[in-house]
């Protein structure tokens, strides 16, 4: 069996006295697993939970059910009830809670659960940062209000964000600017709620998932300890110290597919739960270079909408983890309507994945790509070339910036 072994950790294995040991085929014979059935001690030097590990799930099932003797009687309904109890015990009857909704699955499910627990003492905010997809604001606000009955304030801050991003091309700087603007807006929202209810919100709901917790957890042997601050920084770009908000993270023991299951129990529309992930910094990380230059955002919105709608029409949306278009900071020469053009180039990216940690590029049929490319060049002014991204993760990341 071939397995991927993380380098640099093999010296703790293969000590004398251990029983059976296995070797990795691609790592010069270093130990990749061992077992001592007498002492009932087992160890693995690879990630069985990763989809790329063959028989990983079988290995885990064998360990849990045959070795440890546990039974699979865990139910999502029980978790929901438990979390509601925890939320009610945490938030006193006169306290208020805020939640930043992105229109994504995680924050929506987290907010819906907290709303079920504490009702309208939950106050949600959705920010139009000028970096949203085609008609995104209307589409998500409609779902929040009509289907989920969530109390949501929509703030149009597009000018504020775009003016701060003018001339910025470095991806990290873009992310930091966006994170900082989000915080200013959340802070202002909290102040307004304080004026209205006479009390500052004490809690912030975040849609932290278990993979985020794992990623925030430092490797064993380092002096560091796990910190929630790491995730909150990751999530909303860092919270201002004077907000003093305590975190409510009801999904922090769940993986994405489990969050979707919880969402189904909470009656979040299935179409919404199946939405592809969308990055917090929005189209800013899909327009390479200065997002405010020319009509890059508008062009990208139109291209992206055509691509996604074509994927839906072809019945492929649910087979793809994430699909989107990227606006490239180059122009190419073309011939359109008997005229020479010097126009924009856009890239299409679609990947499959189980958890976003690794991903493979999606292999569209030739006809699909041909149709989409023609449709884009024929209907989006200023685009004369469409290319496809055919790299997996690794070596690339899913997003381009
Ligand atoms: N436009 C927005 N308005 C309000 N809050 C936002 C917005 N975009 C992102 N956020 C907040 O920042 C968090 C992190 O954004 P990111 O896109 O990385 O989310 P995520 O962890 O994938 O979760 P989700 O599935 O909810 O989008 C979101 O969960 C949400 O709380």
Name the descriptors.
401 residues, alpha/beta, Rossmann fold, GMP Synthetase, Chain A, domain 3, 3 domains, 5-stranded parallel β-sheet, 4-stranded mixed β-sheet, 12 helices, 12 strands, globular, binds adenosine-5'-triphosphate, Rossmann-like_a/b/a_fold, GMP biosynthesis
Helix share, percent: 25-40%
> Beta-strand level of the residues, as a percent range?
15-25%
Give the domain tally: 3
* Average of the residue pLDDT scores: 87
The fourth-level CATH homologous superfamily of the largest domain is HUPs
> From the 3D coordinates, which CATH architecture of the largest domain would you assign?
3-Layer(aba) Sandwich
* Number of DSSP strand runs: 12
How would a crystallographer describe the biggest sheet?
5 strands, parallel
CATH secondary-structure class of the largest domain: Alpha Beta
Q: What distance lies between the first and last C-alpha atoms, to the nearest angstrom?
A: 35 Å
* Adjacency order of strands in the biggest sheet: 6-5-4-7-8
Q: Can you list the ligands bound to this structure?
A: adenosine-5'-triphosphate
Helix and strand succession? EEEHHEHEHEHHEHHEHHHEEEHE
What would you call the structural class?
alpha/beta
C-alpha-based Rg, rounded = 24 Å
EC number: 6.3.5.2
Binding site for ATP: 102-108
Domain GMPS ATP-PPase: 74-275
Pfam families: GATase, GMP_synt_C, NAD_synthase
What's the topology here?
Elements: E1 20-23, E2 31-36, E3 41-44, H1 56-67, H2 76-90, E4 97-100, H3 105-118, E5 122-128, H4 136-147, E6 152-156, H5 158-165, H6 171-197, E7 203-205, H7 210-216, H8 228-236, E8 246-248, H9 256-265, H10 270-273, H11 296-313, E9 322-336, E10 339-352, E11 360-361, H12 366-379, E12 383-388
Parallel strand pairs: 4-5, 4-7, 5-6, 7-8, 10-12
Antiparallel strand pairs: 1-2, 2-3, 9-10, 10-11
Helix pairs in contact: 2-3, 3-9, 5-6, 11-12
The structure holds adenosine-5'-triphosphate (ATP).
Domain GMPS ATP-PPase: 74-275
Pfam family, one: NAD_synthase
Organism: Brassica carinata
């Amino acid at each position: 069996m071939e397995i991927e072994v993380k380098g640099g950790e093999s010296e703790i294995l293969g000590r004398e006295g251990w029983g059976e040991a296995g070797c990795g085929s691609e790592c010069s014979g270093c130990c990749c697993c061992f077992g001592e059935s007498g002492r009932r001690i087992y160890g693995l030097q690879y990630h069985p939970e990763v989809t790329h590990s063959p028989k990983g799930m079988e290995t885990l099932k064998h360990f849990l059910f045959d070795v440890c003797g546990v039974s699979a009687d865990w139910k999502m309904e029980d978790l929901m009830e438990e979390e509601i109890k925890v939320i009610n015990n945490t938030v006193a009857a006169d306290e208020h809670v805020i939640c930043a909704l992105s229109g994504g699955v995680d924050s929506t499910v987290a907010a819906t659960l907290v709303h079920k627990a504490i009702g309208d003492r939950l106050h949600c905010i959705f920010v139009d940062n000028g970096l949203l997809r085609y008609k995104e604001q209307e589409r998500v606000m409609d779902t929040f209000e009509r289907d989920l009955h969530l109390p949501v304030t929509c703030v149009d801050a597009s000018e504020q964000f775009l003016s701060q991003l003018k001339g910025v091309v470095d991806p990290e700087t873009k992310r930091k600017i966006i994170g900082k603007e989000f915080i200013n807006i959340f802070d202002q929202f909290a102040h307004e709620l304080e004026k209205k209810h006479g009390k500052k919100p004490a809690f912030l709901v975040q849609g932290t998932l278990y993979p985020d917790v794992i990623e925030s957890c430092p490797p064993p042997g380092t002096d560091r300890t796990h910190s929630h601050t790491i995730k909150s920084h990751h999530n909303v770009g860092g919270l201002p110290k004077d907000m003093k908000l305590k975190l409510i993270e009801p999904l922090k023991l769940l993986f994405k597919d489990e969050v979707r299951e919880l969402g189904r129990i909470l009656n979040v529309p299935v179409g919404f739960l199946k939405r592809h992930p969308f990055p917090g910094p929005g189209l800013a990380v899909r327009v390479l270079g200065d997002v405010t230059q020319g009509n890059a955002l508008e062009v990208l919105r139109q291209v992206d909408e055509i691509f996604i709608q074509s994927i839906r029409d072809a019945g492929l949306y649910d087979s793809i983890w994430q699909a989107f278009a990227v606006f490239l900071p180059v122009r190419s020469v073309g011939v359109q309507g008997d005229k020479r053009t010097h126009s924009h180039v856009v890239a299409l990216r679609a990947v499959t994945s189980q958890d976003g940690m690794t991903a493979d590029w999606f292999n569209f049929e030739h006809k699909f790509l041909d149709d989409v490319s023609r449709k884009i060049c024929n209907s989006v002014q200023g685009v004369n070339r469409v290319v496809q991204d055919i790299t997996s993760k690794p070596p690339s990341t899913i997003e381009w910036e």
